[in-house]
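Support request, please re-run this one:
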Amino acid sequence: MKKSLNIIKNILLTFILISIGFALGKNYSSLSNGNGKKIEQNANTENSNFVKVYYFHSTFRCSTCNKIEKLTKELLQEKFSRYIDAKKIIFKEIDFQANEKLAEKYAIVASSVVVVLKKDNKTVQYKRLDKVWTLIDKPNKFNTYISDTVDAYLEKLKE
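Re-run finished. Output below.
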């Protein structure tokens, strides 16, 4: 009995330490691309017409959640860097468990990417990209899925 309690205690302690490590690592990891330029920007922008790409995640993230965020940021950096520089695209990662109001606005119940069209700083249209989970191991399809929506919303900015 004592041996079983010791094993359970060690498993729980290991889980807690791993959780703390994930939390600290995520909070202190760099959000920059290879040039040191940050992709994440504040919502406050001089430009009132833009596309906002949210990555919603839970407080505790699995490796797949982290991979979805990483692939999304890499795609934005590689394909849309000029729009990021011009503040036509803004990326923001949000803990949906800590920001329930925003999660409710976009009907978020699990980690997801949401692309939002903003005109005059107001949400005009948005699309929740739930298929990122099923496309995570198909990078080309994953990128196409996200970039098609971003491209469509960038076109709508011109209207």
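The chain has two domains: 1-28, 41-158. The first strand starts at residue 50 and ends at 57.
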